[in-house]
Design goal:
Radius of gyration of chain A: 25 Å
Number of helices of chain B: 6
Number of domains of chain A: 1
Structural class of chain B: mainly alpha
Distance between the termini of chain B: 64 Å
Shape of chain A: elongated
Number of domains of chain B: 2
Helix content of chain B: 40-55%
Oligomer: heterodimer
Number of helices of chain A: 9
Number of strands of chain B: 2
CATH topology of chain A: Alpha-Beta Plaits
Distance between the termini of chain A: 92 Å
Strand order of the largest sheet of chain A: 9-2-11-10
Strand order of the largest sheet of chain B: 1-2
Largest sheet of chain A: 4 strands, mixed
Strand content of chain B: under 5%
Order of helices and strands of chain B: HHHHEEHH
Radius of gyration of chain B: 23 Å
Structural class of chain A: alpha+beta
């Protein structure tokens, strides 16, 4: 049974239409998509290959730590929840032996024993929280900052189990009633998401230093670890510094000068 | 047809019961909402994109914005007439459209959609309508 010319042309025509249809359908579907040419870099933004923080414990005292916590928590709408089991914290004060269990021992010098140590997310180079997140709600940016995408967080708390520093807090309840004074420029969080310090990514974008660095009266220094001439690198070259639980291989981006 | 009368009566009653909600609501269609612009939005003359685009696709735009901002760390959007905007629902959109109740909620209620943006993003403080 051979095809005659007329039948062949009919089939060919229908086939060509069939090939075109998916493209047309896709075009119709994506006709209103935006494209990347519509974003523009911010000339004021601060950039780095690897952001890092240096905390000078010699300059730290209760008052400064308190100011840093207040600056951070008020800017980021962090609620104040008195119940320890439900509290939310981005930066908080702890003892030397709790921050550095491997270094501490019972005959430490008195200064170290009583010094208030501000602790917050280490924004690790090798972050376990990012590895375990099933939705990629927490992810590592190219500049090293470990970010949270609240839109994607499903509240499974794997990241909290993975973090060896306890840097993450879970919202067991709606945090809004516990926010002392809302900062209208920053969102709050909702019940069922995990939150933490993000090295003030939103402030870096505006050309500002992290809130705690600004409030710390020079006791905290922030800069690019990949740049040998940056302030953080200069300080790390000249002073003795330690990190939290370095043996775990998370490679924290927060250094403490003692 | 056996028992034709009973079957037909049953059918009529059944159909009447089934369509009762339609009869009940006949002629009571909800009013089509007309979102109102604030004086500030009115003065700006244009939004980040054309009015038609924003009406149909604002949710797609917001979705793209959040990915660009949160995941890629870009915050400046080049919109209509090459005007630059900070990509922020809370600080840019709601700065002009500060009348959320009139501008957002009315349509969202009409379309029976409940976007959960406001569980985290702080909505503008509005005075209660008298």
């Amino acid at each position: 049974m051979g095809l005659n010319r007329r039948e062949f042309l009919k089939i060919a025509g229908v086939s060509v239409m069939g090939l075109g249809a998916p493209t047309m359908a896709l075009n119709a579907l994506f006709k209103n998509q935006l494209n990347a040419s519509q974003i523009s870099p911010n000339p004021k933004a601060l950039h780095a290959k690897r952001w890092a923080m240096v905390v000078d414990l010699k300059k730290m005292n209760k008052e400064i730590v308190e100011k840093c916590i207040k600056a951070c928590h008020s800017i980021h709408n962090v609620p104040h929840i008195p119940d320890k089991k439900r509290e939310i914290k981005w930066i908080w004060e702890t003892h030397f032996e709790h921050a550095f269990p491997e270094q501490a021992h019972e005959h430490m010098d008195e200064v170290l024993e009583h010094i208030p140590v501000p602790v917050f997310c280490n924004n690790c180079e090798n972050p376990p929280c990012v590895q375990v997140c099933p939705t990629k709600a927490t992810f590592q940016r190219e500049d090293g900052i470990v970010m949270m995408d609240m839109h994607r967080c499903i509240g499974c708390r794997f990241c909290m189990a993975a973090c060896p520093y306890g840097s993450r807090s879970f919202n067991w309840q709606d945090p809004r009633p516990f926010i002392v004074k809302e900062n209208p420029e920053y969102p709050t969080r909702t019940k069922g998401v995990v939150e933490k310090c993000e090295f003030c990514a939103e402030r870096l974008e505006k050309g500002l230093m992290p809130a705690c660095v600004e409030a710390s009266e020079g006791a905290m220094i922030f800069g690019d670890l990949a740049d040998p001439e940056s302030e953080v690198r200069k300080i790390l070259r000249s002073r003795y510094s330690i990190q939290r639980k370095p043996g775990l291989g998370t490679r924290p981006a927060v250094y403490y000068l003692i | 047809m056996y028992d034709g009368g009973k079957i037909l009566t049953g059918l009529i009653i059944g159909i009447a019961l089934f369509t009762l909600p339609f009869w009940f609501n006949l002629g009571k269609a909800a009013k089509i909402p007309e979102p109102k612009l604030t004086p500030k939005a009115e003065k700006a003359k244009f939004c980040v994109e054309s009015k038609e685009y924003m009406q149909a696709e604002h949710m797609a735009l917001l979705d793209k914005w959040r990915d660009w901002v949160v995941r890629d760390g870009n915050r400046i959007y080049v919109g209509l007439h090459d005007k630059k905007y900070d990509m922020s629902l809370q600080n840019t959109c709601m700065d002009c459209h500060s009348n959320k109740k009139k501008f957002c909620d009315e349509c969202h209620n009409y379309a029976d959609v409940t976007p959960y943006c406001w569980e985290c993003h702080i909505e503008p403080k509005e005075e209660e309508e008298k």
